[in-house]
């Protein structure tokens, strides 16, 4: 197979054009809560119920998930942009975050949805580890999701019925 050279910035821009939701992955190790913002999340299987998250090799969260063997995926709502920035390390002054617990894991209130998982398996792929989680619980609220595309946070807007015809 021939190696094709693709510019890193162009590659990131192309991948960033895919609109995604925003999540904060949380876990607890030795009574310390850890969290990080991530948009690399997907459903894997319905039977059994499995999801996947992808964590970079340099992220501190990588070892926390390996140690705890469980994690929660908090799918952020439109009003949680500052939480996304805080867990991404983008805010100069961090405010204290209050966590509640669901299925034994720390979660963020007001998220659109929460998925709790036990670690099912992990795969090192390139410069990331893909963690497959066996779903142990789900929680759903009626909030609009926080979206991210082309390097910016976005809002969900319903299309007019006439615009949805294909």
From TrEMBL:
It comes from the Bacteria. The keyword Oxidoreductase applies. The keyword Chaperone does not apply. Keywords: Oxidoreductase. GO terms for molecular function: FMN binding; riboflavin reductase (NADPH) activity. SMART domains: Flavin_Reduct (SM00903). Residues 15-155 form the Flavin reductase like domain. This is Flavin reductase. It comes from Psychrobacillus glaciei.
